[in-house]
């Protein structure tokens, strides 16, 4: 055993495997699959006849009555959002038409007042001429 030299050499640390869940959460599964060349399929859990998948942070029923109900709920939510947007557009159009009608009404009243004033001034002038 040598006195002045050391035979101690530390073991090399194994390279850490990159955690794909962080990349998936940060950039999305499409980015992770492209950059890391890995196939990330959704996590599936099956308990008897009941099957659920984990997508975008939520457990979604994939089969059975719950799966059909979930799909129907998603369809109804999309339809509700579409109808709400249409309702908002119709409200906006109604407000614009109401404003336009108000402007036209004010203009018509102003024109009537001007006509009445001009007729009144003509009558007043004709009375002065008679005297």
Task: Write the SSE topology.
Layout: H1 20-27, H2 29-36, E1 43-47, E2 50-55, E3 58-61, H3 64-130
Antiparallel strand pairs: 1-2, 2-3
Helix pairs in contact: 1-2
Describe the structure.
The structure is a single chain. By secondary structure, the protein is mainly alpha-helical. It has three helices and three strands, in the order ααβββα. Strand 1 (43-47) and strand 2 (50-55) form a beta hairpin. The longest helix has 67 residues, at 64-130. The radius of gyration is 39 Å and the shape is elongated. The N and C termini lie far apart (145 Å). The model has no long low-confidence stretch (mean pLDDT 79).
Residue windows where pLDDT falls under 50 for at least 5 positions: none
- Given helix and strand content, the structural type is mainly alpha
Distance between the termini: 145 Å
Shape: elongated
Task: Please bin the fraction of helical residues.
Answer: 55-70%
pLDDT averaged over residues: 79
Rg over alpha carbons: 39 Å
Largest sheet composition: 3 strands, antiparallel
Please count the helical segments.
Answer: 3
Question: How are helices and strands ordered from N to C?
Answer: HHEEEH
β-sheet strand percentage: 5-15%
Taking strands numbered 1, 2, ... along the chain, how are they ordered across the largest sheet? 1-2-3
Counting DSSP E segments of at least 2 residues, the number of strands comes to 3
